[in-house]
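Z., the sequence and structure:
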Amino acid sequence: LHPVCSRYRPKPQPGLRAMAKLKGNVQRPHSIAAATAAALINFMLMFGMCAAYGMIIFRDDRHAAHRALGVKMCLSSAAIGGLLTALLSGIPIAIGGTDLNPAVFYGTFVDAISKDLTLQLQLGDGQRADEFCAGQHLLDHRLECEEYHEQLRATTIFAVATSTALLGTIYFLLGRLRLTRYMSIVPLSITEAFLACIGYKVFTYALGFCSYEPRQFMTAAVLGLMLYFCKALHIMEPSIALPLGMIIPLGIFWGAVFAAGHDVQYMRDTKWLFAEIKNEPFYLVWTDSLGKYWQVNFSAWGKTLPDLLVMLIVCTLDCALKIRAAETKLPLQPEPDAEILRFGVFNWLLAPCGSAVSYMQLKFNVISFGVMGNTSDRRAGILYAIMCGACYFTTIEHFNYLPRLFLSALLFFAGAGFVTENLWGSRQYLHRWEWLEIIAIVAVFIVSGQLVIAVLAGVVLAGIAFIAKYAQVPSIAGQPLRGNEVITQERPVGEVAHQSLMHIAAEWMLIVRLKGYVFFSSSQSILQSVESRFSDEDKNCVPSYRRLRYLIFDAKLLDGIDASGAVCMLKIKRVAASRGVRVLWSSVEPAVAEDLKFREILETADRFGNLDGAVTYVEKLILDHIATQLHEWKMLHPAFQRDDKLMDQRVRFEPFREIFLSEGARMGCPWRYCNRMQIKKFQTVLCKTGDVDQPLYLVHSGAVALWAGGQREGRKQPQSVRRHGWFLNTEAVFGQPSSAHAVAVEDGEILFWTKEQWWQLASERPLMMMEIMKAVGRQEAFFKQERDVEKHSLEDDSGHFEGSEWHDKLDAVEAVLAVSRQDSKQSSKCSEQADLLISAEIDLSRSLSRKALKALPQLQARLTDMHIARALGELGFYTEAADGHLPKLPRLLQDDLRLAFFTFAQQQICEDVEQVPNEFPAAVLPGERVIDALLHAGIFHVLAADVCKEDLELEEFLRLGHECHLARLSPAILQLIETLCSQHDRDRNGLFAVEDTAHMLKVLFGVEFEVGINDVVDRCWGPETWPDTHVTAEQFAGIVSWYVKRRERDWNILQGIFEVLGTRSLQVDLSLATLDSLRAKLSTDGQPKTPSEEMLWAADWIRGGEGQGQTLDPFGFLTVFLTNLHLEHSSLPPSCVLNESGVRRPSHWQTIESSPADACEESPDTCIMLEDIDEVPAPEPRWAAALLEFMDDPESSRAARCMGRLTSFVIVLSVVFICLEPLVSGKQQDQSPEVQLFWLIADIVFAVIFSLELLVRFAATVALEPTARVALGFFGRFRNMCDLIAVSEIYLDHVVHLPVLRALMLERIARLFRLSKLVRLKRPIVAPLTVVILVIMGTYLLYVEKEK
């Protein structure tokens, strides 16, 4: 088997008992008897091979006198090389000697030398072999003939010795430089084709040995193939099969000869034996070469150089591959470099002896291993070398008693391996077109008869195949990606801002991932992909703000680029520059980068280490652009500027903005249940993979990187980088070990919850704990879900479905939607029953149903708050009521204020006042820390500028906090609340149930409230009436006041939007003209930075840019002011102080401890959508499928098995008729009309049978898919093509009288293609045996056609 492809081939089933023992690491002990038997078997094979090789080297009958020299050169290689191999090889049981490949090339050397000498000596090139330098020709050219043979011997010995020395040098250098691993760079199809050509050549020699006499070569073929398949399939022990396979046929042959009364001379005269070969002393190798060095004809030797070059390649590959294949054939692991180096030294020693090249013979190694049962006994190789040496130094005349068919059988034995493994076996792991390359190379060799021409044809075919194959493979990995289709490691902004970023990145950024080698043809795919984007923009008249601005080439998979590819890339760069597109490169190898810089394609500033770095760089540029636009948006109204300052103030103070989405979750001061910690870049390690009981972290400032599986394990880049607002080690929530290393990469601060704090939080503040878990789940889902490129709204998705299954699913969906509509109707009825109605409601259903918003609960919550604020404003809750009633502040909110006061207060120490024992110094809150204390208590709707800068005592701060927490209610509102409470006071005791709170607020405000409001009331106002679980009218007024105050910020934004739109309704889109007029009034120079059209489009990310830069719906307008791009963060608040005893001294404020944290991943919730289903295809005709299975798969049924055997019998019978015709009736031109008619009728009968079979299979195939592509593809398959050739010859020749194949001398060979049908039989021996017979008979019939 070819070692490079051994993994693709089925391993032969071991039939050797020794192999079975070695699988259990049990080897047979050394035995001199077993070693002698192995040596004898290998000697018999090698001597027969050397005899055959000598005949091949001097195969022309003109050179019969030199055949002994050829045998001696091969025997010296087996003797000397075999002894050195046995003694010094790293494979103890190795058998050395020459091989068939060198012998074939030596034969071509002799042919080239002979042809040139004939021309130089003017001996005439048209002489027959039996007349050359014999008879009259010898009398006419006596001196020239003597000179011819002298120069032929000397030049041949020199050519053989030179090739051995050169191969020894190559072997030595390969081993010394450790280059054997690079031997597989030669295309496998070419290597297999060359070896297949050797197989064909060997079969030609085998037929030639038998003089193309069918009785001889058929007997030899049967014997040789039987020996080969017994060895290949491990049918018998090689120690038994091989000796019997050689000795028994010899015994039968000579027994038959003597039984018939014939003698040796008679058998030689009738050409059953070769002409007698006289033994030559071994020293003639030196005396006829070095002793007659002047006879070496260097001009004739020069004619062998092309073949010598091919020989060096083939024999080097053969030696290296056999060494590597030893590992698969034998239970040992040789060192290829050391082994081939030894063979190099061995061949240096053989070259002065005029010996053929020698290296390990794998098939002989396997025989020795099978006989001895171990891999360590060197005695078999030594004894084998001694036996070969005995023949080399004594005589080889026993060769004269070997019949022609015996040597021919040995050649069939050797050549069958090339045909079955290299010609046929290669199709199992090569593509069809690659295998056809082998067929084409072999065909060229058959037609030309020159291996050099076949080599050139192979190189040309390999080059054409490479170009044709890889020119079709684009140099782009997948499709170019838009900016929103690439997930980066870092999340610099929150989820809402991230969606706005992706909206712009999808248009501005294009990522092209290059792969392979960019050359003249494959570069066109790159150019076309980029130009198609540019042409689409021009064709669709895409405005400039939506056009491509950044083109990123990711060269992670790029191997290199040639001059043509460089010209193409340079063209892309110039076209991009003319359109204002910046070209960036990522993951460029240094060598490739230098090449790109030299060709002026790459600039240093445009190169990034990886794709993530390039995309992150572009995203930061886009974020800067968005920040500029947001600033211009917020300059439209003072309310927008105030809200931006409030957002910046909160983001700087805490990381909880996108964590606590409900109002009740933030109550109770989350600072009491967590700790803070400072992190130092590349010093702080928060957790490691597999850590247990590590805290849950939340990043406030700085950055933390995560490495999956380990900090430096397997990848240089982190899995992700977490910043403000992102959780880390989320496995802690579920009690699981950490899944990644978390390492700080920037200085900052983090929060963390220990296990004890988490349990305390769950016990005392379950709403807060649940909100944190929701945020953790959102972030985890966000990072595990790929971004959705298509941003279609839910209502735009539609599909047509067929089939009862889908109708059932749609019925279920309709039922759910019906229930939803019914609930909506009931909700509307409840709103109509309210005393006060909103004049212009905000319809959130259209906006919140969009996929972009469904994935962002933070934005949904804020839009819902806007909806409530609109309702409160329409009801007059935000009218001036300076003298209005201020409800009582619940105890929970008071406790939060006290905690905030003591946390930020400091002791007031007066040196002139004596300190009273057991009394704490008075605590005072410095004016600069008042806003921090309010933020600590959860009051985020007050700016620092709105708060006095004076120091405050506790009572003063509580009054301030009271005013900030609750809104003053007018008498009218109080009267409305009292009336509403009386309606729900069932027992007339001034109390109502907590569960009624949400319904009462809905009736009062006219909008739906989440059920969670009951929990807020229970936790905040419930303890006021403990142990009762009811709410008084005063407490309900406090709840209303608290809600009104919370929504005041949203109402201010709405007021600004109303003033900008010029209407009190949110049903009007913001138009381009309106925005232009507003910006013109605000602009001092009349030239704003960003075009208004671009601002409208960039803000329209919820609808995916449906407004086309001309309009912006109210909800898109609202989200502009809800987008957070504030990236600066102050220090976290100090640890909580519960009472005045812990109030810090002024000097302690400089030494507050801090602590670090990590961040986590997020992902929007997935939206399950129904997809279109293609139309169900028509069912395939069953008869056609059943008929194809019946005819193509003989193992499918008993009837198919019988049919397959009958078909095989007819095929074999037809081939037998083809072979019998020349044997029985002779040449066609010598046949009588009656005989010709008989063979013609036989051909027609077989042709009709095979034609019907072919037509039936064609009809069944087309019936399955009646298209022209399928019909043409049927005859495009190799086996169908062979069938068509096999049956078309008879019709072309005898029906339409177009003897095309006869004119090409391929008449009978075409009919021989019928034998290819046997390949379909699923038997391990049938297919290779069929191919071998096909090649043998094809070679013979080709000779017959040439003789015609």
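The radius of gyration is 47 Å. The chain has 50 helices and 21 strands.

Let me know what you think.
H.
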